[in-house]
Amino acid sequence: MKRLVILAVLIVFCSSMAYGDAYRVSMRWSAKPGYLRLVLESGEEIIKTARVYHSYSLVKVEFQSEFSFDYENTPDAVDISHKGSSLFININGLKDVKVFRLADPSRLVIDAEIEKTANAKTVPEEPVKPYGLSDVVMVIDPGHGGYSMGLVGSDYKEKDIVLSIARSLRYTAGQAG
Predict the structure, then answer these.
(1) What is the pLDDT of residues 68-106, one digit of tens each?
(2) Domain-embedded: residue 43
(3) Is 137 exposed, middle or buried (CB count within 10 Å of its CB: 0-12, 13-18, 19+)?
(4) Sheet of strand 51-55, all strands in order from the earlier edge strand to the far edge
(5) Do residues 71 and 27 touch, judged by C-beta distance below 8 A?
(6) Range of the structural domain that residue 95 is part of
(7) Total structural domains in the chain?
(8) In this predicted model, which residue has the larger pLDDT, 75 or 18?
(9) Do the beta carbons of residue 22 and residue 106 sit within 8 Å?
């Protein structure tokens, strides 16, 4: 009887250890400006049956049952929470998500296109100084002088349109200096 109890406890213990290994999900990631890749790795059956949903900045990965989740750290723009059989990944500035599965080892890859962060160190551009037109001689020639009227439509004549554009350009150039 004692051996039977020990055998039963051993079977339960071993099956729970096997269950724990089967439902362990680990994550790694890589990031570039405007791009984030999350890789979830686990057993083949878990990855195969996982479903991914995304809306706004949230990506939800739903597994077939509860699991243990291992990850070391995440990028600043990512918050991760794990509850029951779901993994919630909140990605700041999320634009688009592409999901695919890989085998050997089984992986679920989530490629996220994100907005480039405002934290990125950029050199501010010097304001462009407009060129003064006071030293420039500009000749505006609308053309069609003399007897040529250009194209003639039912309501408009080419010469009138071109002359109007030339006058507008002269006014704009005069305002610029």
Answers:
(1) 888 878 887 888 888 888 989 998 888 899 999 998 889
(2) yes
(3) exposed
(4) 51-55, 58-62, 86-91, 78-83
(5) yes
(6) 26-114
(7) 2
(8) 75
(9) no
The residue assigned the tokens 């554009």 is: 165
Beta strands 107-114 and 51-55: pairing type? Answer: unpaired
DSSP 133: G
Each residue of 127-166: pLDDT tens digit? 766 666 566 777 877 776 667 777 778 888 888 888 888 8
Cβ-contact 91, 77 below 8 angstroms? yes
How many Cα atoms within 13 Å fall on the side-chain side of residue 116?
A: 4
The pLDDT value recorded for residue 88 is 92
The two three-digit tokens of residue 172, written as one number: 């704009």
Distance CA 96, CA 113 (A): 5
CA distance 65 to 166: 74
Amino acid at 64: Q
